[in-house]
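Entry type: protein chain
Record version: 2
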Amino acid sequence: MKVILRNDVENLGRLGDMVDVRPGYGRNFLLPKGHAMLATEANRKIFELERKKLEAKAAALRKEAAGLAEKIAAARLLIPMRVGDREKLYGSVTTALIAEALAGQGVEVDRRRILLDSPIRTLGEYTVRVRLHADVIAELALSVVAEKTAYAEEEVRSADDESRAQSTTEDGE
């Protein structure tokens, strides 16, 4: 089945490409979702008329994804986990946990966009990739720490904030 792609489709092609796909994939996914149209002569003419509008829409999505990638690259996640012997985690850090932690920092990302090569099962520093667009992949710095360590760091930070607040009020008097 020959189709014309109406937007970039991962592992298939870019906007405007004419590709051969299996009939089930075309009928059940590409056509209903609006990612493609049948490659007939009439549809080619229609596509050429709306090509500029589709390219502008794709550019806007790419720009939005690039802005979100900057936010993600600036974010530093700290995920506290329960640990057992030899600093091995009970369970593992999942994409859902990472998405929830990002949402806590004001960055909404679908968990299916977070790419983990393998489950995270030990404490440490990790770099996690987030696919925001076919052309935009952000890298996120992630620290997995023991729960007790995380709470101790948080208490130190809050104590530092309190001491700064007291020193600014004393300076302001």
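Comment: The mean pLDDT is 84.
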